[in-house]
Structures are given as C-alpha cells and as structure tokens.
Amino acid sequence: MRILITGISGFVGSNLAPYLSEQHTVYGLDIVAPEMPGVERIFSWEDCFSDRLPQVDAIVHLAGIAHATGRPRDAAAYFKVNRDLTVRIFDYFRTHDVAKFIFFSTVKAVAEVVPDVLTEEAEPAPEGPYGESKLAAERYILGCLREDPTGFEGRGVYIFRPCMIHGPGNKGNLNLVYRVVSRGIPWPLGAFDNRRTFTSVENICFAVSGVLTGNVASGIYNMADDEALSTNEVIAVIGNVLGRRIPVWNVPRRLVSGAARVGGWLHLPLNPERLRKLTENYIASNAKIKAALGVAKMPVRARDGLVHTLACFKKGKGGTECRQS
Predict the structure, then answer these.
(1) Structural domain of residue 228, as residue ranges?
(2) What is the pTM of this model?
C-alpha cells in the first residue's frame, strides 16, 4: 500500500512513518522536507495539490496546530490550519483515486470536561478554538459524506479522536511533569484525585495500520489506552523509572489554583489551563475501535506505554531511535 502522511515530521508522524514503512511505501507532506528512514520521499506544502504528488492508496492527515497550554495562539490560526487545511486535503482525497482517508481530530472536539465516560455518540460541545476548529473540520468531512454518499462507495473515511498521546518524542505535559520531578522537585498536586485516559502512540500505530489494511467501516473512533490512570499514579511510574521515590505534597487545592492563576499572568509553566489538564477527570471509551479491529484489548497497556515513554525521556532520546520494535 502507498500511504501519504501529512505532518510526518511531528510527534505522531515520526512514530507512525517507520511503523508503516516496514510493510508499506510511505510518503510525507510537511512544512519542511527532511529525510526520514524508511520514507520514500517527503514533499513540501508547495508540492501539495500539484501533479508532483504521487498516486497513493491512503492519506493519513496528521498536520494541525496542537492544543496550546502556554501562551495562547490567535483563534484564527487554529481554524486556518485545523479546519481550512483539512478541507483542502479532504477535497484532494475525494477528487482523486484514493481508497482511504484518516483524519486525526481530538476528544477535545467533543468536550473539555467529561463527567462520566466519553463515547463517540456524545453530542459535541467543545470549548475554545482548538476543539472548535477540529470539530469544524469533522463537520466538513461528515457533510461531504452525507451530500454525496455514492461518491464514497468502496472508500473508507475515518475520524480518529485521540486522548492525550504519549510516546517517544513527546514534548507535551507528560514531558514537563517528568522534567520537574526528575530534578528532585516534589510533586505538589497530590491533593488532586483524578483519573484520565491516555493514548500510547504504539496503539495509535496499531489502529492506523488495522484501519488501512482491514475491512473497517467508515466513522468516528475514539483512540485511547484500555486503562485510566491518575496523575499521582503517573508520578509513581516516573519514580519507578528513575529508581527513586518521588515526594508528593498535598498542597491545598485553593493555594495551587491561586499559584496557577499567577503563573498564567506571568506566562509560567504552571497556568490554569495546564493545571486543569494535569488534574481533570477525562475518561474516554475505546470499545468501538477495538470492536472494529476485532481485538479484546489494545496491544500496549497504559502503564507499559508510559514506562517506555519515560525511559526514553531518561535516556534523552525521542523519535524513531527509541521506538519499540
């Protein structure tokens, strides 16, 4: 199979490309066009929508602006990339002889806060430009499917909604937490008792491969590990990887929230948005994707995936050189 991955040099793309290239021919599309092991060629956006792009069997659309937890971006930037670029890529797909299309959205296109367990049937109500722009892209794709169902007969269109993804090359909140506690700084959020679902990038790769090569119905699929973990459990896993006990302080919530507000004013690492992401309850069901792939459980357990990610942090490695075989 010939596969085009947009945003191939990003976190997910740099893990997905070598995984797929073991059995398929992989091309990339990105802002820059570096060489990557196993990738046939990486095209720049200047090549996009031209006759320079090769004929492919599938497109995996990863390119987008991620959720900002530091200095906020202009809302228009989210829509320009997450919605408008997706529209252009999907239009290319539907006007060319390409069999399958996977769009990476996010659970944040549905909800910022999850009181129970998030399923694909939940009515979307995103908050903020990140989730709103991803939902706008989803709605464009779904609208095209409704308006021209015969035009997509025999073709697969998939919307993946991953929870917080972790793995080699991760530079998000998990990396920040690791850097803090690895320096011997006590973890101050022990008073927050939460549970959340993560997504191992290895499970992402498994699901993408299964959808591309299997007979999977088009639709929306949550992407998540099987188990939910609390942030305090993650801290304990970090301690195991480092080989030492991490001190956990039960600082009163009100005091921590006040410090986060100050951090937001001063653009410090701990701000209200990052505090919420570290301490919120956010559990998503992955039952639908497992049923579609015909598996009882995902190949990588949440704890095992976290251990691998954290071991890569410890070694100072990221990307494909620390990828699991």
Answers:
(1) 2-322
(2) 0.90
